[in-house]
Every structure is written in C-alpha cells, then in structure tokens.
Design brief:
Layout (H helix, E strand, L loop, with lengths): L2 H35 L2 E10 L5 E12 L3 E3 L1 H11 L2 H21 L6 E5 L2 H5 L3 H11 L7 E6 H5 L2 H14 L2 E7 L6 H6 L4 E4 L1 H4 L6 H16 L3 E4 L5 H10 L3 E2 L10 H14 L5 H6 L1
Parallel strand pairs: 2-4, 4-5, 5-6, 6-7, 7-8, 8-9
Antiparallel strand pairs: 1-2, 1-9, 2-3
Helix pairs in contact: 1-2, 3-5, 5-7
The protein binds ligand C2E and magnesium ion (3 copies).
C-alpha cells in the first residue's frame, strides 16, 4: 500500500466523493451561519409516565430550518458539528435555551416539566461542563432538578474514570442523568453500577418491532430488569402504537416517549399539548415533578 496507490485511490474516488465532500463543507459553513441567524430551533417531545399517563418531562431536540434545504435533520448535521467541534457552542446554546424555555413555561403558568438535553461526547469531556450547566440554570433561575442530561454509552464509557468524576459533580448538583440509546453501544456493567445515573433509555430500534420480534421482547425485558435492579428508571423510546405502550406497561417500563403521544413540537405547541392533557389528567405539582 504505497503513497502512489493511495494517491491513485484518492483520484479514483475523487469524482464520486467530491459532491459529498463539498456538501459537507457547505454544511459546516452554513451551520456556523445558522447559529447566528436564528435558523436553529428547539422542539420538545413529551416523556410520559406510564402508570399515571402524565407528562413529567420533555426532550429538547434541535431543528434546523434551512432557507433552501428545508428542515435539515439533526442526524445529518450533528455528526458534522461533532467533527468540527461546533457541537460545543451549539450544545451550550441548546442547554441555555432549554433552561430559559422551562422558565418561560413556568412563568406563563404551565405545569412544571423537566427538560432533557442531549450532550455529545465532546461536550461531556469539556472541563467546564458543570460550570456551564450551573450558569445556564442560574440564568434561568431554575433548580437543578429541572434538568436532565442525556449521554450515550460511548460518551460515558470512553474514559470511565473521568466520566465517573464528571457525573458525580453533576449529580451532586442535583441534575438528572440518563443513558440514551441504551443497548446500541457497549456498557461496562460495573461502571453502570458505579455511575450516579437516574435513567436508562431503551433505544428505539428495540421497540420498533416489539410486537412481532421475540428477540426484541427478550432484550427489552432484560434492560428493564437490569435498570430496576440498579434502582434506575427506564424509558422506552419510539413508542408509536397503543399495543407497544400496553405491552411496555405490562413489562413494568416507567416512561415512554414516542409519536403515540406526540413528536417533538414547537414550544408553543408543547404548551398547548400540556394544557390539553391537563384537562384529562390530574395536575402535576412542582414537588411531584421534582420527586422522580
Ligand atoms: P435521540 O436523542 O435518541 O432522540 C430521539 C430521536 O427519536 C429524535 O430524533 C426523535 O424525534 C425521534 N423519535 C421520537 N419518538 C419517535 C417515534 O415514535 N418514532 C420515530 N420514528 N422517531 C421518534 P431527532 O429529533 O431526529 O434527533 C436525532 C438525534 O439527533 C437524537 O437522537 C440525538 O442523538 C441528536 N440530537 C438532537 N438534538 C440534539 C442536541 O441538541 N444535541 C446533541 N448533541 N444531539 C442532538
Ligand atoms: Mg436523546
Ligand atoms: Mg435516544
Ligand atoms: Mg435514539
């Protein structure tokens, strides 16, 4: 494998790759611009308590309303933001906005909800993360119990000793911590036990075919049992049907998130949704919300 063949290889791929590379470069510079021009929005998806059917929290999900490309999925631009390091300022913006949004909802009389914010691995490794979280909370005059941070298995298992320290600091502040997309990465069970976690979120890929795939049933049962034996709550992602929800209820799953309740919606639509649900379900007090 010589330099020449590498160069030849490069030439060979150049044509078909260039549109992809150009696109990626364009995406990067456009993303930098989007952060300043207000093209980025945060939508909120409810997380529902299965036993009570009440919305206790929501997840902040970033959206990019691009002037010519239309809605760009975070699956497209989050990886680019991660590669370029843009994810750090971007993630901080999401965290601050989400805190201010919860403050605004409280001030306008909505029943209180906790907000979950996704943290990328790079953000999680920033030494000043706890200070940024602290400052986002202070800026919005929120108690730490209003915030939940979602981390993937790879983010926390990359350097478990360092993660343990960061998680201990965040958890001591009173911030909740979830492992996102659980089951798709590699977790060391001994670290799972040692980390101060609150929740495991079962990845959507195990929920999708739950009603027809016995292997998925086994995996979901195993995750629920593992979570409960470690005194963690368990959340199912991507619940789309009444059957899936009923089945998860029977398995003892604590919460769910998914289109069956609602996709992620704008802040105003989220407030309207909560208002509508409140009419049907007992109201949640702030103390209730902070308890679990
Ligand atoms: P995630 O954190 O696992 O978020 C859940 C994803 O599943 C969201 O996709 C949500 O819209 C989608 N979803 C929820 N319920 C259903 C359902 O019933 N059916 C289906 N088919 N999908 C459902 P979304 O918003 O496209 O986000 C994709 C990923 O992008 C997120 O996965 C997360 O990893 C990342 N992401 C989004 N916002 C942020 C952010 O602010 N910061 C970081 N670091 N990552 C983010
Ligand atoms: Mg998430
Ligand atoms: Mg997830
Ligand atoms: Mg996921």
């Amino acid at each position: 494998y010589t330099k020449d063949s590498a160069r030849g290889g490069y030439r060979f791929y150049a044509a078909e790759m260039s549109s992809f590379i150009d696109d990626r470069l364009a995406l990067e510079s456009e993303l930098r611009r989007a952060i300043e021009t207000g093209e980025l929005e945060i939508h909120y998806q409810p997380k529902v308590d299965i036993p009570t059917n009440r919305v206790r929290s929501c997840e902040a999900l970033i959206r990019w309303r691009h002037p010519t490309r239309g809605m760009v999925s975070p699956m497209t631009f989050i990886p680019v933001a991660e590669e370029t390091g843009l994810i750090v300022p971007l993630g901080e913006w999401v965290l601050r906005q989400a805190c201010l949004q919860v403050r605004h909802w409280i001030d306008t009389g909505m029943s209180p909800v906790r907000v979950a914010v996704n943290l990328s691995a790079k953000q999680f490794r920033q030494a000043n993360l706890p200070a940024i979280v602290q400052s986002a909370l202070a800026e919005a005059h929120l108690e730490p119990g209003f915030i939940e941070l979602e981390l993937t298995e790879s983010a926390v298992m990359h350097d478990p000793e360092a993660s343990a320290q960061t998680l201990a600091t965040l958890s001591a502040m009173g911030v909740h911590i979830s492992i996102d997309d659980f089951g798709t990465g590699y977790s060391s069970l001994s670290y799972l036990r040692r980390f101060p976690l609150d929740k495991l979120k079962i990845d959507r890929s195990f929920i999708r075919d739950l009603m027809k795939n016995p292997d998925d049933v086994s995996i979901v049962k195993a995750i629920i049992s593992l979570a409960h034996s470690l005194r963690l709550r368990v959340v199912a992602e991507g619940v789309e049907t009444a059957d899936q929800l009923e089945f998860l209820r029977q398995l003892g799953c604590d919460q769910y998130q998914g289109y069956y309740c609602s996709p992620a919606v704008t802040p105003d639509d989220f407030a309207a949704l909560i208002q509508r649900l409140r009419a049907e379900r007992p109201e949640l007090t702030e103390a209730d919300m902070l308890r679990t």
